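Q: What changes when 3-acetylpyridine adenine dinucleotide is included in the input?
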Amino acid sequence: MADPRVIIVGAGMSGLCMAIKLRQAGVGDITIYEKAGAVGGTWRDNTYPGLTCDVPSRFYQFSFATNPEWTHLYSPGPEICAYLDDIADRFDVRRHIVFGTEVTAARHTGGRWHVETSAGGTDEADFLVTATGVLHHPRHPDIPGLGTFAGATFHSARWDHDVPLRGRRVAVVGTGSTGVQITADLAGTAGRLLLFQRTAQWILPAPNRAYSRFTRAAHRRLPVLDRLGYRWHETVISKVLSQAIIKPGWQRRLIGAMCRRNLNKVADPDLRRRLTPPDEPMCKRLIASGGFYDAVQRDDVELVTDTISHVEPRGIVTADGRLHEADVLVLATGFDAHAYVRPMGLVAPDGRTLEEAWRDGPRAYRTVALPGFPNLFFLMGPHSPIGNYSLIAIAEAQAGYITGWIRRWRAGLVTSMAPRADATEAYNEAMRQAMPRTIWTSGCASWYLGKDGLPELWPWTPRDHARMLSTPEFAEFDVS
Ligand code: N01
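A: The predicted holo structure follows.
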């Protein structure tokens, strides 16, 4: 049996998952190119204060490598990063990783993918798998005068830990999951915290309880508890939150009521009014936080809801002409979620580029493959079910599916495979038909929406996604 050569781009959670699945299938000729110097992807890049995964730890982990040592219901970011670092060694995939090397281009010619790297090198492989993440490119707001600010300015995903915050005036722009977590954590440390909110967001109450030493010892001794914990959280999220998002029903009413009740914790009617979102709960990605409303009611925290006019050296000026003086300016303004895979330039055998294929927005076959681009697979590709769910579970389903195709190559059944254009179009049309039932189309702006105004998310349950990927439809592929 010939051993296929596989190049994986990115050593974040999903790249590691892919490599592990391949190794478990007996595929050993793997290279993972990672542009940074460490594994962990988003959990390596994001180090802001308060960084916590808002999916429970017992579910936000590999099903085949559960960790009894989680310290909290919701894991702090550094713990997840350490977990992924450990996984790279435990499953012996670190030796496949080439650090500090970015794949800049890849072209499919002569039946193989030919790859160019930032180091000036070239490589080739039978399969190319991109594991480049979703929220990777920080979005810098277009605020006039931003560059004139006299203090330190940085994006939340590029936190500058050399900048002292204790006792200083910190301005945070943005109230997405990131801005909310930063606010809950920095309140009380910063001398004064100014939170600039453009659109209020709904917040699901999520107090983060610590696991006792007893609980951890019990999980260490009885691995079945880890498995039960995984199954429990997966079931609750799948049966309640995922259902609430994709269709009307009691789940949607329940989550909405929980968010509205949570907002009532804000005692001051004017502050409560300003924190009341104009849209439905879950229209934007739902935020989960235990401490935000307490933080924002503190005397040393100010919620600013006037539109930002510009930045000047001393601080931020709002449309009412008021200058909000600050020493540090944090941009919690999110990411370019649609820059999937790019700027890497991919070229199909017929010369078509990925940029051309995705001119109207990223589209794929079943989230993992693209017509005309043989032996190319995506992890976290277009329309993956990434909202309020464990991305690790999704990566496992996708990596399992991709491994299935690589096994067939290895068995000599196929050498080239790409989904058919008509099957891809039928699948995308079914998604478009299903979108109006989802909460994302109920009227709000969010990073979920693509160029055509439609959500770039999976409109069914993550369990449906896993089911879909469990059985490859050979008839929907052009193979040779
Ligand atoms: O980014 P966002 P994020 N002037 O795009 C505001 C994941 N995540 O980094 O709503 C003023 O959600 C913008 O305002 P508006 C998670 O998937 C996961 O917070 O557009 N404000 C908004 O308030 C999440 O969804 C965890 O009106 C401006 C904010 O900036 C995703 O990352 C933790 C502005 C951006 O919110 C992104 O979250 C953290 C401007 N010019 C993040 N431009 C977990 O726990 C933008 N804004 C797993």
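Observations recorded in class: The domain at 146-210+216-331 is CATH 3.50.50.60 (FAD/NAD(P)-binding domain).
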